[in-house]
Amino acid sequence: MDRIYVDHAATSPMHPKVIDKMMEVMNSEFGNPSSIHSFGRGARHIIDEARAVIAKSIGAEANEVIFTSGGTEADNHAIFGVAHSYKQNGKHIITTQIEHHAVLHTCQQLEKDGFEVTYLPVDQEGRVSVEDVKKALREDTILVTIMYGNNEVGTIQPIEEIGKMLAGHSAKFHTDAVQAFGLENINVRNCGIDLMSVSAHKINGPKGIGFLYVNKDVKLSSRLFGGEQERKRRAGTENVPSIAGLLEAVRIAQQEMENKAKQYNEFKSVFTKILSENEVEFFQNGSLDYSLPHVLNLSFPGTNVEAMLVNLDIAGIAASSGSACTAGSIDPSHVLVAMYGKADDRIQNSIRFSFGLFNTLEQIERVAEETSKIVKRLTK
């Protein structure tokens, strides 16, 4: 039985070209990028090239890109860094109830340190209101952190509108773009974004590497202390092979973005069409108009998320839920709770299918057919 992976929002397989590039660099460039000799200069050249290409892909300048160990560190660095750099101006932060835990848990830690955080609600499509952001804004607000696209339901937030609204305020604007980067055309200048987090392993790059965009006018306190790497903003010898892999992944993503979006939207259409043809009852969670192309979150009334995932796995299909399944218990998805409330059945019966590299139309058709069989079996 061929296994089918439709959990790309969790992590994605590395692109063969990324693997080749990393192997090439591991074989040829072992120097410390901080060394002034030829070995160091060779490694430094790779980092400089990666920084320039990545900056160009988001409309930024090369010196505004900081390499990190991934999205979590980038989120932590952005939020803690701004909070401690600007606390003399105020201690109020605005975020939403559906952020990734790398943002939510960081904000909760800051609350313990004396900061005040406003967690904005979202509508039933998972979208925050620009007006709610405006109403929450205060004179002592120093940071607004709102994700670009949600990792569970795929809803894209009104980032550009929020950025324009914040233009006359001193608060810094951070967005977690881990799910959106590589699939959405993001220009940080046009969107008024001051800080943006990205992770390589969501775009077919290696795990353990990512970057944080920081506008050159933003002060950012360090989270790591040691050497003077990354312009004294992030200590530690740079992971050159992984940075080379990230660079290759970004290049490929930029080249294939339009075609991938078209393909994944077709997957969504075919998937839901087959479910309908098989007379399976389902509801789509998230926005139909503002959605990441690769994420499809579906509710199947009368089913249970654990039973669905186990049956899908037995059928050779790797999907996931908005819930964290640990030790036989399910913690309700904070995203779905924010959208529908704790009592809604969708909390217990929603499955996330997310598409990516190596998926084919034939695979998606098989996933939809198998899903139909499983739902019918479980709802008899």
Report what the structure shows.
This protein is an alpha/beta fold and 380 residues long. It has two domains: 4-12 and 257-378, Alpha-Beta Complex (Aspartate Aminotransferase, domain 1), CATH 3.90.1150.10; 16-252, 3-Layer(aba) Sandwich (Aspartate Aminotransferase, domain 2), CATH 3.40.640. It has 13 helices and 15 strands. Strands 2-8-7-6-5-3-4 form a seven-stranded mixed sheet, sandwiched between helices. Helix 10 (305-314) crosses helix 13. The longest helix has 38 residues, at 240-277. The chain starts with a strand and ends with a helix. This is cysteine desulfurase. One of its GO terms (molecular function) is metal ion binding. Residues 4-367 form the Aminotransferase class V domain. Its EC number is 2.8.1.7.
